[in-house]
Amino acid sequence: MSEIIVDSVKKLILNILENLKIPERMINPLYYVILTAFVLLVCASLELFGRWVILSLFYKITKHSKRLIFSLLKKHRLLSRIIHLITPFIISIFSSAFGKAESWVSHAVTIYVIILLIVILDAALSIIDDIYRTHEVSKKRPIKSFLQVIEIIIVIVFVIVVVSSWINENPIVLLSGIGAFAAVISIIFKDSILGFVAGIQLTSDDMIRIGDWIEMPRFAVDGIVTDISLISVKVENFDNTTTSVPAYALVSDSFKNWRSMKLSGSRRIKRAIYIDMSSITFCSEEMLSSFAKIEYLKPYISEKQKEFERNRSKQGPDISSVSRRQKLTNIGVFRIYLERYLSNLPKIREDMTILVRQLPAENRGLPMEICAFTSETEWIPYENVQSDIFDHIYAIAPAFGLRLFQEPTGFDMHKG
Predict the structure, then answer these.
(1) CA-CA distance, 145 to 147, in Å (whole number)?
(2) Is residue 1 located within the same domain as residue 45?
(3) Is the pTM of this model over 0.85?
């Protein structure tokens, strides 16, 4: 059927040229020009028909469909790329009409088809990746890097096919000689090779997933992983900037992954306040009476007073008042208060560490470190819980006769 159409077009063009009494030396050039224009016109007409009629009708029919595949076909333009195959198909039909130029036309069509197949493959792999991302396992085992490796391999094979078609050589012969170019290929694709190996390590060891919050100070990374590709990992930072980190850097360098924090449902609060050491003193009877009125301290003070009475009865009446007071200090009572205050907060995990401890004294005073775990793991709720805790600590410290340290300011000098 195609041969009949080609012969009819060929005869039609030649008849037209003869009827127009074109000089014989101009017939062949004009024939090829008219034939080329005719073929291109047919290709353009069929492609426009496919785009404006077939594709438009398809998109209208599937516009209100909830199936993901239809939206992905439109997003990655897979069907429109397939329609491009009409052009090489039509040209290949009429290639025999070009006479001696047939081989050149066939080579050009082959190259064009391979380029189109690569573009179509890219769209198809993108659709596969997008569909895979809708499943929860994609966060743990992303496949984008593997799909990119498949695409690179296919592109290399296609290039070999193109070269072999131009030089009329068997592709297997070229493949057998590719080992000679291994060094060059390893240099050209160094990042891809390193990234591929790193990608396998990252996914097989479950070091990173899409959606993980990671920190990597060397690359100014502090945000959520949004994409894992063959050679890079894309991170959306909390300042709305995006950073691309080489995949192999995540294997060769250290980084912090906050995933386990989210999975545990807890986030650590660890911060120190500085106590002015000159405000640390033994508790007087008035102070103990005042502390005993605090709900969190009432059992503790009562127990300590009973303990003091037992010790005093054992030690006799000659024990000095100073010795009796040495066992309780305002900072010690404050530390117990903070422990029980934290234990009674609803958003502090009681099943995890709650610690209030003293660190070695510094020139800024005596550091008292608060360490606990809150059930709030998101940034803003976590900061709110932490701020509420330290708001209370700063406000309650003077009630224990303690002063918090801060560097002197101009206001302090003026006040003095």
Answers:
(1) 5
(2) yes
(3) no
